[in-house]
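Lab meeting tomorrow. Please check the following:
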Amino acid sequence: MKHVALAVLLFFLLTAAAYAAVNINTATKEELTTLAGIGPVKAEAIIQRRQEKGPFKQIEELKEVYGIGDKILARIKNDIIVDNPAPAPEVKPTVEPAAAASAAKAASPAPAPANAPPPAAPEAKAAQPSEQPK
């Protein structure tokens, strides 16, 4: 009895895997070759088109791939999807904005008070007689 139950479970798992839609934007060569009419050469062509032009936006764009026409597309249309791959995670700055602002504030000189006298001009140093050119 256990063998029968295991066989039925295995059958359903294999059947479900066979009917799972293939995402043509993320599928490997091996996954693409599971589609009817798509062999290793066409799978490579799909991957190459994806690398050159970016992800497919519509299933019909598969016809841009050499060797895939209306007949093959009609055969595999219900077995494929065109979900776009997840975007790359956003890179966060290594310094917190508040810390960066306080570091910039600490590096700049403090403003003079409004009622402070203006800074005195540097006094010119009188030339010494020995320093004058002859």
Observations:
- Residues 124 and 130 are 17 Å apart (CA to CA).
- The helical segments are 2-18, 29-32, 40-53, 70-76, 97-107.
- The first helix runs from residue 2 to 18.
- Strands lie at 22-23, 80-81.
